[in-house]
Amino acid sequence: MGAELKTRVSFGRTRADGKALLETDELIFRGSDVRLSIPFKAISDLDVRDGKLRVTSPGGTVVFELGDAAARWAEKIRNPPKRIDKLGIKPGQRVVLLGVRDAALKAEIEGAGAKTSARLSGAADVIFIAANNPEDLTRLETIQASLQPAGAVWVVRPKGKAAISESDVRKAARDSGLVDVKVVRFSDTHTAEKFVIPVARRG
């Protein structure tokens, strides 16, 4: 999830109050009668003046009244975080990829100085699990024995598929004793949810 602010937007003769959301790859506005979604890759011009963020895309120019946050949001739009940064992978970590067949991800992890494996052995710092249906989530309880106490589990699932939903993932994780802490856009087709062992159980 990204940053969120109450704001007023204007484009053409339209004015609307609502909430602006700065996600990982798009700028969103939700008002009572107005909905906007502007992908970063569609933005052709970005300007900050007097606390206002002016965003130009093929749909025209939209002005977001963000105050002191305008410059920060512009910087994040110009330099969005890389996937490896959002996933929090650090040098020296042991990362296990269970069913996640993504050569680019493996290269990104190793490029960040971490080590990868396709099987559980010892205590991992981060475990990625591919989940295409609720049955794939049954491993959430058993894999905790192979996770560092302060480690993380990322569940990677396809977006918008009836076979498995966000609520399915969160319920399975909660039932296994994990708590959710973060959701990120994993790719154009998949999302990833991060879970950790509660502090009280880390010994």
Describe this structure in words.
It is a single chain. The protein has 5 helices and 13 strands. It is α+β, with helices and mostly antiparallel strands and 203 residues long. The chain folds into 2 domains: 3-78, Roll (PH-domain like), CATH 2.30.29.30; 83-201, Vaccinia Virus protein VP39 (Rossmann fold, 3-Layer(aba) Sandwich). It has a 7-stranded antiparallel beta sheet with strand order 4-3-2-1-7-6-5, with helices on one face. Strands 9-8-10-11-13-12 form a 6-stranded mixed beta sheet, with helices on both faces. Strand 8, helix 3 and strand 9 form a beta-alpha-beta unit. It is elongated and about 60 Å long.
Question: Which features would summarize this protein structure in a list?
Answer:
2 domains; alpha+beta; 203 residues; PH-domain like; single chain; six-stranded mixed sheet; Rossmann fold
Topology, please?
Blueprint: E1 3-11, E2 14-22, E3 26-31, E4 35-39, E5 45-49, E6 52-57, E7 60-65, H1 69-78, H2 83-86, E8 94-98, H3 103-111, E9 115-117, E10 124-130, H4 139-142, E11 147-158, H5 166-175, E12 179-185, E13 190-196
Parallel strand pairs: 8-9, 8-10, 10-11
Antiparallel strand pairs: 1-2, 1-7, 2-3, 3-4, 5-6, 6-7, 11-13, 12-13
Provide a brief overview of the structure:
This protein is an alpha+beta fold and 203 residues long. 18% of the residues lie in helices and 43% in strands.
